[in-house]
Amino acid sequence: MSLEKNYEAIQNELIQISNQLYENPELGDQEFESMKLLVKYLKSYDFEVETGIVDRPTAFRAEYTSGKPGPTIAYLAEYDALPGIGHGCGHNLIATFAVGAGVILRQHVDEIGGKVVVLGTPAEETSGAKVPMSEQGTFDDIDVAMMVHGADVSSESGPMLAMDALQFDFTGKAAHAAASPEKGINALDAVIQLFNGINALREHVPDDVRIHGIITKGGEAAGIVPAEATAQFYIRANERKLVDELGAKVRNIAEGACLMTGASVEISNYELSYDNMITNQALSDTFTRHMKSYSANPVYPAVPATGSADMGNVSQVVPSIHPYAGLNEPGLVFHTTEFAEKTITPDGEAAIHDAVLSLAHTGYDIIVNKDLLHAIKEEFENQ
Ligand SMILES: [Zn+2]
Ligand SMILES: [Zn+2]
């Protein structure tokens, strides 16, 4: 068994896929060309593919079955880009890592048994498709789920924050702001009181909590009392339970803002909620061991949770990891054009080498080592 040889044989194909995704960045749920490219590649290696799963047109499930008993290994691909900055989160790499690992492991399962699944998971940056996948049974027949994200440096899979995306639509009453201000109800004032209330709440929350928002509608003209005003917030914390508690408090603040101003409010979720990421340590340790042996770059311990991702929801239903493959540039910032450009350099190619081989080798280990799969599952049952 030489995974390195398998990798060398497809290296150029993988780099081409990453570059093509980079050249044609598509926003969440519009990644049609990206999906086509990935599906075509997987089909050329005999994967059976179903597109449009969980009612998401750019989602897909690609599967190769050995026909022999054994675990099912899933690699998750993201391929959505960001408005204005293309693949500034490097999801072209994530997709390349997943299909590369899938194609390599697929060449071994006829011998060792089991099944390889590559899941196409759209719109991570907005309303991630891994949420409905986690809710609708996509992972029911899957034993482990793995993905790797690009980053400035490599690090182990760690925690990520649970998150709610709350929208507050306040309605007041328009009036001439100078001639008859007493006849108006100022919806913008309610938004401002919402911000003030949340800022007061900040003093009494644990350190891991992040609440951050913008005003998306704040009136039409200074001479008109704003009849409609809207704010959007992300509320994040280490655990889902705390996010739910904070959500209740923030809703009360919004109601309070209505009492203060006479406005009314409608509260909704403007994007899907993400759960916190629980790394499966047994799975992560295996991956990290391979990453350290395949990569020329250091692999750092997991960093404390700062962001959120729909992989968190996956980790609640199946043993999961979400480690980072470094681009050999400490301090490189996510969601920038610099990050996007870095993905198509030799350092990006090195990240593809490191992540693809580590993912494939981890999958191989799980299939051939029953004790490892047992340890992973036991840890998951106790989480
Ligand atoms: Zn991102
Ligand atoms: Zn990302």
TrEMBL record:
Pfam families: M20_dimer, Peptidase_M20. SUPFAM superfamilies: Bacterial exopeptidase dimerisation domain, Zn-dependent exopeptidases. GO terms for molecular function: dipeptidase activity; para-aminobenzoyl-glutamate hydrolase activity. Transmembrane segments: none annotated. Keywords: Hydrolase. The keyword Nucleotide-binding does not apply. One of its GO terms (cellular component) is cytoplasm. It comes from the Bacteria. Residues 168-255 form the Peptidase M20 dimerisation domain. One of its GO terms (biological process) is folic acid catabolic process. NCBIfam families: amidohydrolases (TIGR01891). Belongs to the peptidase M20A family. This is Peptidase M20 domain-containing protein 2. It comes from Oceanobacillus sojae.
